[in-house]
Specification:
The structure is a homodimer. With about 280 residues, chain A is of the alpha/beta class. Helices cover about 55% and strands about 10% of the residues of chain A. Chain A has a seven-stranded mixed β-sheet, with helices on both faces. The mean pLDDT of chain A is about 95.
Chain lengths: ~280, ~280
């Protein structure tokens, strides 16, 4: 997805938030904002929002020296998600279609963004996602792909959300490789976050080598690039993966909650929508 | 009030909104955003948010050729406010303290920002402002000033809101000079807007000569500067006037709704607060 001008204020807002999370001093924060204005001024043609985010969050790390400003937020989100596990399993066990319910729960987990929500919010989202219609529903096509694929490349998104992904992976019969970011960036899931919840016991976990809040294939390590090129089914969670992969031809399905009006407009659905969307045909 | 870094994304968002209201083409909109990034990059020390807004909205006018992007929004807000007049008068007539009620209504009208709200919202705000405590309450001091002043310099804010100001002015026994902006900028009230509702029948109306969504005295015309310098009581409506005059020594009272967390933090009250605040002592 291209960067729309409406993304500019949002990038700036996010960077200020990150500077605050990194305990930037007022002068550091001003410097971070100045450098972000420079980044926005000189965007290369076709830069996606996560590409900008990647640069901007590197600036935050470089200026503050804080390598993981969202560490605490990620820890809290993960703890909250772990505390919900027994209930999530109960919901699946008592459902008619375990796989669809697990897919819905994984998408519901995508709401775990920008820090923890109060309990009732998260449960409200889960209730809604369990019962609402998909605004884009390529689930039948996803089932087709599941039936004819040998394995799944699963692109993770946020920490906390990855607990919900683990619940889904447990319901999948195909072997899964779970891909995490190459290092801390925003609240995105990393190898340490995955190992901390035992995701490496449920799936192969690999990092893509890039510190980008999305998946820019050309910036990833050769191992990931090879896996991506040869995958027969890719599940991509969240908005960052959508923004960076929506125009890439691959056997990919985007599973996300639409939390931003710009991405909503790009997909053609309102904010709050639950989406399972097949990517560009290969 | 100084410009906080949190104001940057907000300025950018506002300018994109203004570009859209001015029917900017995609390339014009990109140019407007680029120029706004330049403005933000090279802010002079101590520039207030309305000073930036003034520059940014001039850019919108220059690039699109649209001299008044908010004309329609202002017209609709004014019509809505006029349609409420009979009820506003009824509220005052049936109140115990006509003046305080009129002051509260004038502050409630300050919610008429960024276009019209659905009816029930506005009435909800009016209900709340009529009954809630002031988060900062310099009303007793304002009454003192009203008792010892010869006249009032009344600094208007938004179109639509000015209808509520007229209702207040009708309750004031002192002669009032109502000050409007020097030309259309954002949805701020201008001479044409004031004359359209007959404000010139209730008060002397003058424009301050500056196309700024606030009051930067040094940018105003000599006539206004003289009036400002010699005033014994100034009422200043809304956030833009607060942002530009909060550090100016003058016999000024700010009447506003706090609609922005940054201004709230500056005053020390939460968003949604109703404020009557005495300015810096002379």
């Amino acid at each position: 997805m291209q960067t729309y001008i409406d993304c500019y204020p949002c990038v700036l807002r996010q960077v200020i938030e990150a500077a605050r999370m990194a305990n930037a001093s007022p002068s550091q924060a001003r410097k971070i904002v100045q450098e972000t204005l420079d980044i926005l001024k000189s965007l290369p043609e076709g830069a996606t929002p996560p590409a900008i985010g990647s640069q901007a969050h590197r600036t935050v790390r470089e200026i503050t020296g804080n390598q993981d400003p969202y560490a605490e937020v990620k820890r809290e989100a993960t703890e909250k998600a772990l505390s919900m596990l027994p209930q999530l399993h109960k919901i699946i066990d008592s459902s008619q279609d375990h796989l669809e319910t697990a897919i819905r729960l994984s998408i519901a987990g995508n709401i775990m963004d920008f820090g923890p929500n109060p309990d009732y919010d998260l449960w409200e989202v889960i209730e809604a996602v369990l019962h609402q219609d998909f605004a884009v529903n390529d689930l039948p096509k996803l089932y087709e792909y599941l039936g004819r694929s040998q394995s799944i490349l699963f692109l993770g998104d946020n920490a906390g959300e990855h607990v919900f992904d683990k619940v889904l992976i447990e319901q999948l019969t195909l072997p899964v490789t779970y891909v995490v970011r190459g290092g801390p960036v925003l609240n995105d899931v990393t190898m340490a976050d995955a190992v901390a919840i035992g995701l490496d016991q449920t799936a192969e976990v690999m990092d893509n080598g890039a510190r980008v809040p999305g998946t820019i294939v050309s910036m990833c390590n050769p191992k990931f690039q090879e896996r991506f090129r040869t995958a027969d089914l890719i599940l991509a969670k969240g908005m960052g993966n959508y923004e960076t992969l929506s125009e890439v031809q691959a056997p990919i399905f985007f599973l996300l909650q639409v939390k931003c009006p710009i991405i909503g407009a790009d997909i053609g659905v309102p904010v709050g929508s639950t989406v399972i969307k097949k990517g560009l045909d290969t």
